[in-house]
């Protein structure tokens, strides 16, 4: 979330990727850094360590949402 | 009847308790006669009923004295059944409380709560930060036991509690198992209790040591590697478990790590068996660091744990890379056994005066 906000502040279209267990923390961070509406997409949790095939499946499923958010930026 | 101290007001009473060494160093709720009476009343038990003797001072832990500690710690009456069960557990002979309180080692009673009372006597937290600040039941239940150990058991730093440094869990050290999300049977069930029983299991334990492991579902040795690093944490050559041997220890798996092991077809028994096997060390390794302790070892290898069942395993905490292990002291007559105690939930009664309609 912090990375997404920092790049957004540089004027670069940004989407923060946040896993569902850390979604509330992401909202808190966005709020505390003064950019509560920063675009974000929710990923399943856990993601790390779940294997290449699962990562590819998640990427394929969520890529349209990410692209859509970037278009709206 | 417990002796009543006198003070002009609550601020003066707090200073008097600090001066008398009757606190843990933090402010306490003043245990006025009325507050203690209400706590005792909630217990549904006689104030002077003895739970046993707490060492090293040999003070008698009556229901009333435990209620005093519970009030001071900030417990709600709902928490008292868990506090009473935890006190009974540490009083049991096999817990070796007097020796444990007196040792130079850094050990504190870790209270693990299982069963439906986790929710009704609290709730006792089992998720993110369960061993950290912000959870009233966890904070005050563990603190109440510590205040009993200070004021009934007589543990005073540098005088009767000789822990060289201690650890922060000596303020409070209490959590519940996350039974709802665990892929394994609840810990108390594997210890022989019924699922509907509420049970506290208490073990003298070091502070939690983090074990990092980043799983890889594509690695066929994923579960094996996780077990190996957990075993390193449990019984590396800097632990009493590897040097003194024969004691207990605790493994708190986070949900991701629990899933890795469950997906590999392991249940609690299978995990403990592997951890036990992975903590068999070469004698020469012990001889290198602690020659005197190696002399008793016959053969080329030795076991850090006498039995797989000497290791407690539960799931708690948030989901991520870190599980926790708590090595232990391993000394005392019973070598640091854990003790489980049923929580009595049927004896408790409503407290007159707590009804919102009554002033």
Give the oligomer, counting copies of the same chain as homo and different chains as hetero. Answer: heterodimer
Order of secondary-structure elements of chain A:
HEHEH
Secondary structure tally, helices of chain B = 14
Count of spatially separate domains of chain A: 1
Which ranges of chain B are low-confidence, i.e. pLDDT below 50, for 5 or more consecutive residues? 355-359
Overall mean confidence score, pLDDT of chain B: 95
Order of the strands making up the biggest sheet of chain A: 1-2
Percent of sequence in beta strands of chain B: 15-25%
The helix content of chain B, as a percent range, equals 25-40%
Query: Numbering strands along the chain, what is their spatial order in the largest sheet of chain B?
Result: 4-3-5-12
How large, in whole angstroms, is the Cα Rg of chain A?
A: 13 Å
Radius of gyration of chain B: 21 Å
Overall strand count of chain B? 12
* Total count of helical runs of at least 4 residues of chain A: 3
The shape of chain A is globular
Overall, the morphology of chain B is globular
Mean pLDDT of chain A: 93
Head-to-tail CA distance between termini of chain A: 15 Å
What pattern of helices and strands is seen along the backbone of chain B?
Answer: HHEEHHHEHHEHEEHHEHHEHHEEEE
- Distance between the first and last residues' Cα of chain B: 28 Å
What is the number of beta strands of chain A?
2
Write the layout of secondary structure elements.
The complex is a heterodimer of chains A (73) and B (359).
Chain A: H1 2-9, E1 16-19, H2 23-32, E2 40-43, H3 52-72
Parallel strand pairs in A: 1-2
Chain B: H1 10-19, H2 33-43, E1 50-54, E2 59-62, H3 63-73, H4 80-91, H5 97-102, E3 108-114, H6 117-120, H7 136-151, E4 174-176, H8 187-190, E5 199-205, E6 209-212, H9 222-235, H10 240-243, E7 249-253, H11 255-263, H12 268-278, E8 280-282, H13 283-289, H14 291-294, E9 301-303, E10 311-315, E11 322-326, E12 339-342
Parallel strand pairs in B: 3-4, 7-10
Antiparallel strand pairs in B: 1-2, 3-5, 5-12, 6-11, 7-11, 8-9
